[in-house]
């Protein structure tokens, strides 16, 4: 004979029942993130659920999390509508949910997301799945499939079901590292492309100075390097530099005029650059990395956006960087760069040298005499005039050397020249 034991429900004290249930629900949420039966879990989805189940999540701020996720988005293949959905979901999280025991859970329906993004619900569902598989979101489904968040009077979560950003919170440090590495890669690629563009344009610019036979040979070799599909941009750089030195640089060095020539329009005015032979700046080679000019203490000061080039005991007038930047219209367009500080001006010097056929020896001599910033400023003036087709500059390398000599002797002021370039 079977004895039936009646089911006796467990009753919690009225005063403690609600807090106990909330605490139990919180433990369940952290340890066992739920997936609805209609979902088809993949390995990536299960990994996101595992990350969301972590007890020790690092504290962060909503702003920091938002910036990190958006910087890491290209690395994770997030773009277009997926990025739009991510932006909306981050905006709906509460700042306090990124700290403490709370979870950054968003309770928004697929229908509302479709309205916000002006896409279909099916598209929104695919976007959410991609974010989950990218390790940013996790599904935290309720029994009915509804998404909702219940909070107490202090804003603490009592129950929450929806789209959980806990995986992103758990991986925030890794995502920062990923975003930084991606940015460094893009910067390197940009510098290589800029160098390639400068070399190619410099070769084409000076090819007319060669004989017809050498022009044809040069163009054929240039085409072979550019059209070679097995070479990367980095791989093309060395052959192009060798081609430039073989056909252009050697030819330009043979025709350098005496450095005492007078550049019209830039002399016989108030002194701007003064140097002391006992306190010369150390030279910077052309193939040094951008912006690595070593300047002695006291010989250069950068104050309120102006460059003050001085020796240890003699101060000269300053040239506003804004004036230089506004005057270098063609240079900035050609090199595809923005001159926002003195480091960015110095970093463009190697490319400008190649463009106007200034050799490494000439550049090092100029840096030794007036410093990296002074030499870069003069070089930018010569480069800008050459880009605009100034007929007075028959030999840019010799013109640059004459400017350096006049700057060293104290018979040069550049403000008038830069003002004239800005007006034209």
Report the average pLDDT across residues.
Answer: 76
* Percent in helix: 40-55%
Structural class: alpha+beta
The ordered string of helix (H) and strand (E) elements is HHHHEHHEEEHHHHEEEHHHHHHH
Domain count: the total is 3
- Report the uncertain regions: 1-32, 253-265, 267-317
Number of helices: 17
The radius of gyration over CA amounts to: 32 Å
- In whole angstroms, how far apart are the ends? 109 Å
Assign an overall shape: elongated
Major sheet: 4 strands, antiparallel
Number of strands: 7
Give a quick set of tags describing it:
single chain; about 425 residues; alpha+beta; 4-stranded antiparallel beta sheet; 3-stranded antiparallel beta sheet; 7 strands; about 55% helix; disordered N terminus
Mind explaining what this structure looks like?
- With 424 residues, the protein is α+β, with helices and mostly antiparallel strands.
- Helix 3 packs across helix 8 (172-206) and helix 4 (80-92) packs across helix 6 (121-133).
- It is elongated, with a radius of gyration of 32 Å.
- The strands form two sheets. Strands 1, 2, 3 and 4 form a four-stranded antiparallel sheet that branches. A three-stranded antiparallel sheet has the order 5-6-7.
- It starts with 16 loop residues before the first helix and ends with a helix.
- It has three domains: 17-170, no CATH class; 180-254, no CATH class; 277-423, no CATH class.
- The protein has 17 helices and seven strands.
- Helices cover 53% and strands 6% of the residues.
């Amino acid at each position: 004979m079977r004895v039936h034991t009646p089911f006796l429900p467990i009753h919690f004290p009225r005063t403690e029942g609600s807090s106990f249930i909330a605490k139990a629900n919180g433990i369940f949420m952290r340890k066992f993130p739920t997936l609805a039966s209609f979902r088809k879990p993949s390995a990536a989805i299960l990994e996101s659920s595992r990350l969301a189940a972590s007890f020790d999540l690092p504290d962060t701020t909503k702003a920091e999390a938002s910036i990190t996720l958006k910087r890491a988005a290209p690395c994770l293949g997030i773009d277009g509508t997926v990025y739009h959905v991510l932006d909306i979901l981050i905006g709906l999280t509460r700042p306090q949910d990124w700290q403490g025991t709370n979870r950054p859970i968003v309770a928004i329906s697929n229908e509302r997301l479709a309205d916000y993004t002006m896409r279909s619900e099916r598209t929104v569902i695919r976007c959410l799945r991609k974010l989950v598989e990218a390790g940013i979101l996790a599904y935290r489904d309720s029994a009915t499939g509804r998404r909702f968040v219940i909070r107490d009077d202090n804003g603490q979560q009592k129950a929450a079901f929806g789209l959980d950003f806990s995986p992103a919170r758990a991986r925030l440090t890794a995502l920062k590292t990923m975003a930084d590495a991606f940015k460094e890669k893009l910067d390197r690629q940009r510098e290589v492309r800029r160098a390639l563009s400068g070399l190619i344009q410099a070769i084409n610019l000076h090819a007319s100075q060669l004989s017809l036979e050498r022009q044809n040979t040069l163009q054929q070799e240039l085409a072979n390097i550019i059209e070679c599909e097995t070479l990367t941009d980095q791989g093309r750089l060395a052959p192009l530099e060798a081609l430039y030195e073989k056909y252009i640089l050697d030819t330009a060095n043979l025709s350098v005029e005496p450095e005492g020539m007078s550049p019209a329009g830039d002399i016989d005015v108030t002194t701007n650059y003064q140097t002391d032979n006992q306190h010369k700046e150390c030279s910077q080679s052309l193939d040094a990395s951008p912006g690595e000019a070593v300047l002695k203490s006291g010989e250069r000061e950068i104050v309120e956006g102006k460059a003050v080039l001085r020796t240890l005991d003699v101060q000269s007038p300053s040239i506003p960087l804004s004036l230089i930047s506004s005057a270098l219209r063609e240079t900035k367009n050609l090199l595809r760069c923005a001159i926002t500080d003195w480091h960015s001006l110095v970093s463009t010097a190697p490319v400008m040298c190649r463009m106007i056929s200034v050799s490494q020896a000439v550049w090092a001599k100029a840096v030794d005499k007036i410093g990296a910033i002074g030499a870069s400023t003069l070089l930018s003036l010569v480069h800008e005039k050459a880009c605009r087709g100034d007929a007075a500059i028959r030999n840019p390398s010799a013109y640059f050397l004459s400017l350096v000599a006049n700057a060293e002797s104290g018979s040069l002021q550049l403000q008038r020249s830069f003002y004239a370039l800005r007006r034209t």
